[in-house]
Amino acid sequence: MDNKYEIKKYEKDFPLSTHIEYLDYKAGEEVHLRDYLNVVLKRKWIVLTFLVSVLITTTILTFMMTPLYKSTTVVKIDKDNPNVLSFRDVISTPGADYYQTQYEIFKSRNLAERVIKNLGLDKNDDFMPIENRLSVIKRKVFNNTIGLFIRFFSSVIPKNTPKKVHVSSNPTTKSEVPDYLISSLIGRLEVNPVKNSQLVKVSFISHNPELSMNIANAVAETYISFDLESRIEATKDAKIFLEQQIEVVKKKMEDSEQKLNEYASHKEIIIDQGKESILTQKLADISSALNNITNERMQKEALYREVKESGGNNPVILNNSLIMGLKKEFASLEAEYSNLSKIYTPDYPKMKSLKSEMDAIQSRIDQEMSRIVNSLESDYNAALKKEENLTKAFNSQKRKVLSFQDTVAQYEVLRREVEVNKGLYNNLLQRHNELGVSASSSATNIQILDKATYPKSPFKPNVSFNILLSIIFGLMGGIGLAFLAEYFDNSIKDTDYIEKKINLPTLGMIPKYEDAGNSKNFSVSRPRIISPQKEADSSKMPMVIGHDKISPIAETFRSIGAFILLSSSSKPPKTILVTGPGEKVGKTTICVNIAKTFLESSGNVLIIDADLRRPKLHNAFQLDNSIGLSSFLSGNVDFDDANGRLIKPTSVKGLSVITSGPVPPNPSELIGSLRMQDFINILQESFQFIIVDSPPVMGLPDALYLSKIVDGTIIVVQAGVTPRKALTEVKNVFGAINSKILGVILNGVKKSDFKYGSYNYYYSSYYSSYFKEEK
Asked: How far apart are the C-alpha atoms of 259 and 253, rounded to whole Å?
């Protein structure tokens, strides 16, 4: 505040552009949390009204609701059946959708019908929910209003007779339990699986706590019974099916065995205990013998050829015992012959006899060697002949086996068919026996972990929770409505918008008279209307503030007067125009009270009522309005000949008033005339300050004419009433004609608004403490 008005003190003139320069520093301020809090506090009655409405409505509806009780039983569902038997049952439980299926079974119509039959709920009056009071009220209102209207038109509008449809009376197609009872049980049944476990919470809601407990336990027990029955029924059906299949497979097995035997007899197929056939076995034997004789033949052939090629040097011959003896005997005779040859001649008889023996022994050796070679050749030829015979036999047997393969292939097909039928028959027979044992088993993968207990307190309504929830939603909704009302409220409510958005200085804020009037030291008086016509209600007349005592409004007007006096460094404005965007903003009241403020620092002040359409100034001072400004401007009265009738003194010393006079037919022409301008110039010689009360700016040119002949203009706006756009338009209009705007006065501000905003912190601390002291 000080910085703003220090700049104003050094100005010689008061152009509009100056305000924009010294107010631009506030344009970048951010929105704080207290700004939102201010909106809530300012609209607190909207918040409180909505909160109380929601709270009362919720409380009434809560106590009108019928108390409901919920009882819960906990069921454990294992994924696999107990391992009582070594084989698996007919119904298997794996699969990701197994548990979801079980949850749906809990709420199935079949299970609900079983529970109703077991507990006799169709004959229990407590089973059906009691209609709450709210539903009764709605039903009665509907039947007495809209229902009567619908029934009347239904009776008036002709109906087409529907064709009769034959309905079968077969009792099997009609459920023994009515559908509405089944739907009622399912609708109040809750199935909630416990996360990451095999537990399921089954709850039932009813207005009867005992019934809620009994039905919750009955649903769990019926579910277990239903599961066992399902398994037993499935086992029985499977057993019947297996019996039928066993008969069929048995017949197939017998037929296939008969076909196999007939085929084997016809094809003379002999198989040793399911092994190889005789032909195949014989072919293997021949093949083995052929391999052996081939090896033997090859050995004998090799020996024969080796002996034949090497002659007597072969080890077979050299190692022969007979030949070795003969050679030894030959060597002895040869040694003797060699010794005698040294003495005797070859013709010597002894020598001839030895020679003859030696030749005989050599002949035997040659004969024996020849015999050995012939023996080897004979063995070779025998082996070769035997190999040839076996080869012929093998080839012949192989042809027989190849010819027999087709026969054996068909035989194998028939044999495999027999084996398959036997295996299938044995499996079916074993499974049939297992199902017989399983049908008598009562083992189940479902068990009741915790039975439902008697509920001691109602489940609904939760009074404390509903009230807490209504408070939360009431506050949220009320705050939302407050911000919605604030959003759609386009009126001026504080000085921040005037200074930041419109860039105009604020001269002061005038508190609302009803708020400020609570102080015993605050003097506010309304004039008594003395006009015989009683043109207006006295409550709409201007208020005259008592400046002789200390009061918030009086101090506000003194501050406004100080701001006006210091608005120029050379000299303060002598002629001041007071106007506003629209009517009923308190222009006349502010004119009167500013004039009384100027009297405290100057000699005399004049107030001119330039509102020639709806004048009010004469009522404020209880003056005669037969002669006034319109009389002078129209030429009916001269300034020198007025004799006190034009410029009227008041009860306040130093304060004079020129009333508006009779309402002329052409107010704008009189205000915009040169006579008005000359009149103001003449009055400046006699009065130190002249305050002109003019009509509103919007829609009338009077204020524009007057703004050009005065030193400065004061714009009055009504807090919470004057639209923001109206003040913007006023500023643009005066800026277009280069009129001087001294500032804006915010009138009618509520006492509670003083504590909102950083600009009005002074009013928050000073006036609040002032009101507390007065109380």
From this structure: 10
Rounded Cα–Cα distance for residues 522 and 662 (Å): 35
Give the pLDDT confidence of 274-310 residue by residue, as tens digits: 445 666 777 788 888 878 888 877 877 777 777 766 6
What is each CA distance from 302 to 104, 120, 305, 309, 375, in whole angstroms?
Answer: 92, 109, 5, 11, 14
Segment 37-42 long-range contacts (CB within 8 Å, at least 24 positions apart)? 38/756, 38/757, 39/482, 39/483, 39/486, 40/479, 40/482, 41/752, 41/755, 41/756, 42/482, 42/486, 42/493, 42/752, 42/753, 42/756
Beta strands in 391-461 (DSSP E): 446-450
Question: Which pairs from 267-274 meet CB under 8 Å and 24+ separation?
Answer: 267/407, 267/411, 269/407, 269/408, 269/411, 274/415
* pLDDT of 736 over the 80 cut: yes
Residue with tokens 């906990």: 74
Torsion of CA 689, 695, 700, 704, to 10 degrees: 10
Q: Is the pTM of this model over 0.70?
A: no
Neighbour tally for 32: CB within 10 Å: 10
DSSP-assigned states of every residue in 69-107: EEEEEEEEE-SS---SSSS--SS---STTHHHHHHHHHT
H, E, C per residue of 18-49: HHHHHHHHHCCCCCCHHHHHHHHHHCHHHHHH
d(CA 35, CA 29): 12
Helix (H) / strand (E) containing 739: none
Residue 739 and residue 575 in contact, taking contact as beta carbons nearer than 8 Å: no
> Cβ contacts of residue 76 below 8 Å, gap of 6+?
198, 199, 200, 446, 447, 448, 449
Pull the structure tokens for residue 79.
Answer: 């994924």
Query: Residues, the chain, total?
Result: 775
Q: What is the pLDDT of residues 18-53, one digit of tens each?
A: 344 444 444 445 667 877 888 888 888 999 999 999
DSSP category for residue 225 = H
- 479: Cα within 13 Å, side-chain hemisphere: 9
Distance CA 606, CA 608 (A): 7
Amino acid at 381: N
Contact 685, 647 (CB under 8 A): no
How far is it, in rounded angstroms, from Cα 697 to Cα 343?
190
Question: Which DSSP letter does residue 214 get?
Answer: H
Determine contact, residues 630/667, Cβ cutoff 8 Å. Answer: yes
Name the residue among 461, 458, 489, 479 with its Cα closest to residue 54.
Answer: 479
Residue 94 dihedral angles phi and psi, to the nearest 5°: -70, 165
Q: Which of these, 604, 600, 596, 575, lies nearest to 694 by C-alpha position?
A: 575
Q: Which residues are registered as beta bridge partners of 448?
A: 75
Could you identify the residue written with the tokens 């019928």?
Answer: 66
Q: How far apart are CA 391 and CA 297, in angstroms?
A: 13
Instruction: Compute CA distances 348 → 329, 330, 331, 336, 337, whole Å.
Output: 21, 19, 20, 14, 11
Q: List pLDDT tens digits, range 365-416.
A: 777 777 777 777 787 788 888 888 888 877 877 777 776 666 667 777 777 8
Looking at residue 611, its amino acid is: D
Q: Which residue has the higher pLDDT, 290 or 700?
A: 700
Segment 67-88 mean pLDDT: 73
List C-alpha distances in Å: 533 to 525, 529, 732. Answer: 21, 9, 39
Gap between the Cα atoms of 556 and 507, Å rounded: 9
Cβ–Cβ < 8 Å for 512, 747: no
Q: HEC states along 467-479?
A: HHHHHHHHHHHHH
The Cβ of residue 404 has, within 10 Å, a number of other Cβ atoms equal to 19
Highest-confidence segment of 78-87, 151-160, 287-296, 544-553? 287-296
